Amino acid sequence: MSSIEKVAVIGLDCAEPSLVLGKWAEHLPNIRRLMEAGTYGELTSSMPPITVPAWSCMASSKDPGTLGIYGFRNRADHSYDKLSIATSLAVKEPRLWDLLTAQGRSSIVVGSPGTFPIVRPINGCMITSFLTPATTDPKIAWTHPPTLRREINDLVGEYMVDVKGFRTDDKKWLLEQIYEMTRKRFKVVRHLIQTKQWDLLWMVEMGTDRIHHGFWANMEPSHHRHVPGNEFENAIFDYYKYLDGEIGETLDALELEKTAIWIVSDHGAKCMVGGLMFNQWLINEGHLHFTDPVDPQQRFSVKDVDWSKTTAWGEGGYYGRLFINKEGREPNGQVQPEDYDAFRDALIAKIEAIEDHEGKPMGNKCYKPEEIYDRVNNVAPDLVVIFGDLRWRSVGTVGSDSVYTFENDTGPDDANHAQQGMYLCTHPSIPAKGRVDGPTLYDVAPSILTQLGLPIPADMRGAPLG
Question: What are the chain's domains?
Answer without folding.
Answer: 6-272+417-451 (3.40.720.10), 274-412 (no CATH)
